Amino acid sequence: MENDLKSQEKNSASRAALYIDGFNLYHAIDDLDEPFLKWSDYWKLGSIIIPRKSQKLVKVVYCTAYYPNDENKKRRHRSFINAQKVNNVTVIEGHYVHEDVECRGCGAKWKKPTEKQGDINVALHLIKDGYDDLYDCAYLLSSDSDQAATARIFRDSFSSKKLVTVAPPERNFSVHIERYASERLKLNKSHIEKCVMPPVVFKPGVTSSRRPKEYTPPDSWIHPDNRPN
């Protein structure tokens, strides 16, 4: 009986969780200049990047905020957030504030919208879930060096857990985060393509979400799941 229990423990998959700096990933995908890639399933992204033979994805946290004063952006973002929730992604919302900005050259002044709470929400949920022993391995998707403090606290707090630093497509790793991580992983366009969602995302008993027309793929594009081997 004791040997059976040890065998089960040895063969059981470790628990993995993915924490996403939403705007850091968004701007990286936006720079790929293919808008349909923005309509991507972040739970599927997590399931793709983990080693599925040895790990099981237990949570994906996506930290974001609605951009103010642009109803079209807000509409698209709302549809996207609803789709993530249908796919079991935990969405943590921050907010924007308008900060005073002055041009040093001409003295002109204006209000600049600045996103708040995104970085801290990523940090708080990653560390809290670690203390709650929700995962064995955390994946931190951000190239923002501000998250180096998160990585350092992680290393000092959880000697038995692993932290993997994940760089968005076409972005460099933060050397400051990497200093405290166990491993690193680089995303590319192919990862994102595999996660593109269907036009309507739904689950029985859960509110559905429809893809904004701005995120419609070109007619020539075929989802990787449907391409011939």
Task: Provide an overview of this structure.
By secondary structure, the chain is α/β, with parallel strands linked by helices. The chain has helices at residues 2-11, 22-30, 42-49, 71-86, 118-131, 148-157, 175-178, 189-193, and strands at residues 14-21, 55-64, 90-93, 95-102, 109-116, 137-141, 162-167, 183-186, 200-203, 206-210. The longest helix has 16 residues, at 71-86.
Shape designation = globular
State the secondary-structure class: alpha/beta
Kindly state the number of beta strands: 10
Any low-confidence stretches, pLDDT <50, length ≥5?
A: 1-10
Order of helices and strands: HEHHEHEEEHEHEHEHEE
Say what oligomer this is: single chain
Q: Strand order, main sheet: write it out.
A: 3-2-1-6-7-8
Helix % is 25-40%
Rounded average pLDDT:
88
Total count of helical runs of at least 4 residues? 8
Radius of gyration: 19 Å
N- to C-terminal distance:
45 Å
Q: In percent terms, what proportion of residues is strand?
A: 25-35%
Strand count, sense and closure of the main sheet? 6 strands, parallel
